Amino acid sequence: MLSETTRGCKELILPTNYRCGKAIIDYVRENTVVKDIEAAPNAIEGRVIEDMSYLDILDMLVAEHGKAA
Asked: Is 4 within a domain?
């Protein structure tokens, strides 16, 4: 959907997100002002993890994807 803002800019609404899992999109809708967004029909379930330190995130990524080069 394309609309024009009060400043004359073109605004393109992209309601379907093809990058995030369903759980992340649900979290965004419930916890932010962004309400008109949906996950792609074939999106994975995904998961939301809160309150992780940076080192915890790195450890999780290494565990899931192997050691960094």
From this structure: no
User: pTM score, two decimals?
Assistant: 0.62
d(CA 7, CA 18): 29
Looking at the structure of the chain, the number of domains it has is 1
Closest CA to 28 of 43, 9, 8, 12: 43
- Domain membership of residue 61 (yes or no) is yes
CA distance linking residue 11 with residue 67, whole number of Å: 42
Residue 32 belongs to a domain: yes
Tell me the pLDDT tens digit for each residue of 12-50.
Answer: 888 999 999 999 999 999 999 999 999 999 999 999 988
* 25 part of a folded domain: yes
